[in-house]
Amino acid sequence: MARKTSKRKTPKPRKESEYRQWAAEWERRRNDADYGAGNWLFEPTDLVVDPGELMATLRVLGNITQDRAFEAARVALAGYDLVDAGGKWKQPAMLASRVTRELCEMIDETIAAGVPERQVFAEAAVEFSIAAASFDAAVERVRVVYKAYRGKKRVRQTR
Known about the structure:
Elements: H1 16-29, H2 51-65, H3 68-79, H4 98-112, H5 117-127, H6 135-158
């Protein structure tokens, strides 16, 4: 009896030489003045105010002033899905940044076009000048944020 062959697509081979080229470019740019310029895209938000207290304060200010802008701020805060069910800031809240979401969308499109994830993350680490202890660590920072974005995107699609 003949074995059935799988009709699954085989993944495209990763081009180690291209990855090494991105690594070399990242090393070359380490001494540039804008090294680390894109780090704000990947830094966790460290907010000192408690989100529950912020929401309550906005409600009180809206009642005092009768200005709908305070209610709009509460709606926007809830709409960006920044607060978890326990009333704490979600991590990574940096996904609320339009630029970070656009970066993740570009990564999505590039991967959909057949470019291996590792290659896409490497290019993003170089192009966005991500500072880290090593090139692999910079690539990992991009990967972690992208995976968080993908997880959040899946949750929204299932609602």
